[in-house]
Amino acid sequence: MKQTATFIPTLRETPADAEVRSHQLLLRAGFIRQNTSGIYSFLPLGKRVLQKVETIIRQEMEAANSMEVFLPALQQAELWQETGRWYSYGDELMRLKDRNDREFALGATHEEVITSLLRDEIKSYKKLPLSLFQIQSKFRDEKRPRFGLLRGREFLMKDAYSFHASTESLDEAYMDMMKAYTNIFTRLGLNFRAVIADSGAIGGKDNHEFMVLSEIGEDTIAYSDSSPYAANIEMAEVNVTYNETQDTPKEMEKKETPDQKTISQVAEFLGTSPDQCIKTLVFKADDEFVVVLARGDHDINDVKVKHVANATLIDLATPEEVKELLGCEIGSIGPVNLPDSVRLFADHAVKTIVNGVAGANEDGVHYINVTPEQDFPVESYADLRFIQEGDPSPDGKGTIKFAKGIEVGHIFKLGTTYSEPMNATFLNDQGKAMPYIMGCYGIGVSRVMAAVAEQFQDDSGFTWPNVIAPYEVHIVPVNVKDDVQREMGEELYTLLKSKGYEVLLDDRKERAGVKFADADLIGLPIRITVGKKAAEGVLEVKIRQTGETFEWQQEEIIDRLE
Ligand code: ATP
Ligand code: MG
Ligand code: MG
Ligand code: MG
């Protein structure tokens, strides 16, 4: 492409509101523009990068036997009402009405849509398993959109859903996705780790997040320094949504029971303000006590007692009462001393064993025993304490280190969480109607682009790897008013294109300094400068990532590039 024919509005200055490097550079190098908070336009270069990410994803998804579909972004409220998420998803769900006052949501995720699609079509186990994916804009009204593409309100996601007649079949698909994701992020050149995650918003035991290791990551990963063990210690954000996600219409009804305490009631009980209070609720489940910690700034007007399986709220408890009940010092997990980031609990933990359930996102601290497999089993509440770097790894191999990560992908075994309330069933080989067993698998396509951008850059701009660079070669005739330079530039451009290279030709009448600065900023892997030595048939070739330069004869360019 000729630069005069495309649209690459580079900026000299760093935009004031862009906090992280990827965001700054994507703006400065003319890849994206912000429309409003968390909403972006992709300009030609940005669109090309995005497309390359998509291509890699498509190839690996298809290799894993998932087929592409395209589902509606505009989703009728009725679907979300079936699973109860209409009431529980909260403010992140963008809602709107049509001219007849019918309610809709803009797709934040597509479990309901795809489940409803298949329930009318797949009625026999003979048609299972089936795995479908799409790449589409998602809408989430994030509380804090930030870091450019990393946390947008409209962003591109690859989401896949698989449907099975047995858990074994789901297990297989899950492993295949694990492999596909590993291939995708490896091909993209990312420094990543698959970590065991809180099953948070969706439930089920197995779920992994793919984390790109990065200082600006919002998640903290605990990993072993000498084994593959790695887990997210978040237990944050997701949990409110999570418990809400479990809502089925039946549960929605139950919510209205007098057992339920609102956050205001809790605050009143504890003698604090709703904003300040972190509450300790005690549940009794199968004769075991469960402590639930919740914090005030979430919309937990409806702390969903009912969502804790088999649990009944015995009462709100003061720290003293909890201490008595559980026979342990709970000062550190009581209503007052919790780090700000402590949010809610995990109900899946309740299903497994007694758990002191809490989480923390702060540097260097984490409550242990959050989930048996992913954290640190303890014998009793007396053992509850913060986990530190340097603790032994739960798998017995090595010691725990912490790192920051950007969540680029997330895979889940959903089980029948959606198929059950939505009555999406098939007939098994005995002719019995069973709910589909499901898995879901997401990748933040636009977030991946930002994560790659974050990783591949230096002081002067991007250093894109070949697989994702918007073009492979940048031809820069230094002075296009010079006939020799201009013509040699054009010739080379035509030649390289004919050999299948993706080429950008800087045919602008700009000063050399501007051209070089822009070329560094855009960061294509190979730059070919057509300058003074053009008259002698000599070109300067620069490898962007390493900074190496070579002088090559015009005739040898093709051979050398290969
Ligand atoms: P996060 O914890 O960052 O809010 P999530 O757990 O809510 O992400 P999922 O529901 O697991 O996100 O969605 C699948 C993938 O979509 C995530 O792994 C992430 O890569 C991407 N994603 C989620 N929210 C955003 C967003 N606001 N902007 C860009 N990408 C996002
Ligand atoms: Mg989120
Ligand atoms: Mg997450
Ligand atoms: Mg996630």
How would you describe this protein?
The protein is of the alpha+beta class and 562 residues long. The chain contains 15 helices and 27 strands. The strands form seven sheets. Strands 3, 7, 8, 9, 10, 11, 12, 17 and 20 form a nine-stranded mixed sheet that branches. A five-stranded mixed sheet has the order 24-23-25-26-27, with helices on both faces. A four-stranded mixed sheet has the order 15-13-14-16. The chain is elongated and about 80 Å long. The relative contact order is 0.14. Mean pLDDT is 77; it is low at 199-204, 234-263, 274-317 and 325-386. The structure holds adenosine-5'-triphosphate and magnesium ion (MG) (3 copies).
List the keywords.
binds adenosine-5'-triphosphate; binds magnesium ion; nine-stranded mixed beta sheet; five-stranded mixed beta sheet; 562 residues; alpha+beta; 26% strand; 27 strands
Supply the helix-strand structural class: alpha+beta
* Helix percentage range: 25-40%
Whole-Å distance between the termini? 21 Å
Largest sheet: 9 strands, mixed
Shape assignment: elongated
Cα Rg: 27 Å
The total strand number stands at 27
Give a list of the ligands.
Answer: adenosine-5'-triphosphate, magnesium ion
Low-confidence stretches: 199-204, 234-263, 274-317, 325-386
Mean pLDDT figure: 77
Number of helices: 15
The percentage of residues in β strands lies in 25-35%
Short note summarizing the structure:
This protein has 562 residues and is α+β, with helices and mostly antiparallel strands. It contains 15 helices and 27 strands. The protein is 26% helix and 26% strand.
